[in-house]
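Review form for a predicted model. The reviewer records the input and the model, then writes brief findings.
Reviewer: anonymous (R2)
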Amino acid sequence: MNKKKIVCYWSPFISTVATVKAVLNSALSINLYSKNTYDPLILDVFGEWDPSLNDKNYNLNFYKLNNIKTLFNFSSEGYIKSRIKYLMIFILSFNSLKKFILKKNPEFLIVHLVTSLPLFLNLIYNFDTKIILRISGKPQMNIFRYLFWKIALRKVCKVTFPTLESLEYFKSLKIIENKKLILLRDPVFIQKDLIQKKKEPIDNDLNLKKNDYFLSIGRLTKQKNFIFLIKCFSKIIKERNNIKLVIIGIGEEKNKINNYIKTNNLEENVILLGYQKNVYKFLKNSRAFILSSLWEDPGFVLIEAMATNCLVLSSDCSNGPKEIIENKNGLLFKNNYEKDFILKFNQMLKLSDNEKKEFQINAKKKIKSFSIFNHFKQLQKIISNY
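Model under review:
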C-alpha cells in the first residue's frame, strides 16, 4: 500500500479572518475527496488553531510547532501591534519550522499567512518540500519585497490567487513567469453544513422575524465600512421608518459604531448582535444581505449569503464582488458612494417575486465554483503534476 503524501498548511493567524475557514475547508476537501492519496496537516504555531482541534465538523490533524501560547494572548489590535506579532512569529518559529520540514519532509507546504518565513527558509535550505504560495488582494510593493519575491518565488512550484483581479495584478508586476501563477478559488462553504445550520431557529429573545431585517456581517473594522452603511440607512429610515439593519461581528471599531448609532438616535433601527457562531440562520431569514466593504478578497460572506438564497447588494470594491455578482444574481453599487447605494437599495426593494427567483437561480449557478469539491478538483490538478 502506498504511503499517503503529507500536504501541510502554514497559516498562523492573529485574528479570525476568512483565511481560517479557507484553510480548514481546503484541508477537509483533501480528507473527503483524495481517496487516501494525501494526508492534510495544519501547523499550529502558537495555539491559534486550538478552537478547531476538537471540531467534529472537520476532524483534521494539527501539528504543534511551538510551545509559545503566551503569544496568543499578545494584543494584535492596530497596525503596529500586528506587525510586532508577525515579527515574533517569524523569529520564534524560525528553528521549529525548519526542523519540522527537514525531519518530516512533507510533500507540499501550502503557505497562506506570514509568508516570508517559509519562503526565506526555502531559500537557505532548498527543501525537497514543494511550496505552494497563496496571495490575496493587491500586496503593496516596495523595493525590498519586490527583490525578495523576485528571488524567493523562483523556488516555489505555484502561486495561487483566489480572484482573477489579484491574479492579473500580480502578472502585471512581472516578478515570475506567468505559468507559475494560477487561479484557485477558495472553498467557502460545505453544502451539507449549510443546509443543516440554516434550519436552526433564531432565538426568540432577539425579536427578529423572517424578512423583518436587512443583514450585514463582518469584522467591525475600517475595511467593512459600517459607518458608511449606517449613514445610508439613517437617510433611508427617514422615508421608511420600519427599516431595520442588523450587523453581526466584533472588532476594534465597535465603540465608534455604537457611538454613531446612539448619537444619531438609531437604536431602534440599527442592531449590533456581536459574534454569532451560526450566521446562516440569520441570512436565511433576512430580507437581503448587504456588503459595504472598501475592499474584499473575495468576500466569503457574500458567497455564503448567495448560498442561502439571500438577495445580495454589494459595493463594487476590489477583489471579489465584481467577479461574484454578475448576470442578474445580485446588485452592485459604487464603492463608498452614498447616492448610488440608496438608488440600488430602492431598486432592490422593487424587485418582483419572479426577478428575485431569477437572481436566486443565477446565484446558485455562480457559487458552485466556491464549493469545497470544486476547490479540491482545482487543487488536485496542481499537486498531481509533481
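Findings: DSSP finds 14 helices and 13 strands in the chain.
Further findings: The mean pLDDT is 90.
Recommendation: see findings above.
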